[in-house]
Design a protein that fits this description.
By secondary structure, this protein is an alpha+beta fold. The protein has two domains: 15-141, Alpha-Beta Plaits (2-Layer Sandwich), CATH 3.30.70; 144-183. 54% of the residues lie in helices and 16% in strands. The protein contains six helices and five strands; from the N terminus they run αβαβαβαββαα. The protein has helices spanning 17-33, 47-57, 69-78, 101-114, 132-139, 144-182; strands at 36-41, 62-67, 92-97, 119-125, 128-131. It has a five-stranded antiparallel β-sheet. Strand 4 (119-125) and strand 5 form a beta hairpin. The longest helix has 39 residues, at 144-182.
Length: 183
């Protein structure tokens, strides 16, 4: 049997497989540390658009990584977030957030409106896998600070009314006594 010529051997920088294992370890630690992820397809975006997207997401506490599906699937499995594997299809990028989940969804849905090539494939938020429609629905919710303000307002309104009723009775009593005293 004739031996095939494969050409000159090329040495990879860092050794190839150990480099991939290191990348999986980095992804695993990021997945373990973060609370929410949105998986997107970035096919059709130019390098400048990707850089601009990363720059706009960073102030919201969101990191945007282009990842190889096989490495990301291994990292998801190692970190206990195997649900992410079902979302991976095509050239994917992952937005990782450790803050407000609604802010993550809103930021990406807004970016997907302006960058037509950016498609949301799904998400893992609170340990639950979400479809792209679920992410869009989540983006419509008020943010955490807005929800907190609404709860505080709902609690404060009856208390303010109670204080108004109690002080009105005291004020009426004072006015009656002043009127009686001036007679």
């Amino acid at each position: 049997m004739a031996k095939l010529k494969t050409g000159p051997k090329v040495k990879r920088k860092g050794g190839g497989i150990p480099m991939k294992a290191k990348k999986v370890d980095v992804l695993t630690s990021e997945l373990a540390a973060a609370s929410s992820f949105v998986v997107t397809e970035y096919r059709g975006l130019k390098v400048g658009e990707l850089q601009g997207l990363r720059r706009r997401l960073r102030p919201h506490g969101i990191e945007y990584h282009v990842v190889k599906n096989s490495l990301f699937a291994r990292a998801a499995e190692k970190s206990g977030k195997a649900e992410l594997r079902s979302i991976l299809a095509g050239p994917t990028a992952v937005a990782v957030g450790d803050g407000d989940e609604v802010e993550l969804a809103k930021s990406l849905v807004d970016e997907a409106r302006t960058l037509k090539a950016l498609k949301i494939l799904g998400a893992l938020i609170g340990g639950r896998a979400l479809s792209s429609d679920d992410v869009v629905s989540l983006a419509r919710l008020p943010s955490r600070p807005q929800l907190q303000a609404m709860v505080v307002g709902a609690v404060q309104a009856p208390l303010a009314q109670l204080v108004g009723v109690l002080t009105a009775a005291q004020g009426n009593l004072v006015r009656v006594l002043q009127a009686r005293g001036s007679q």
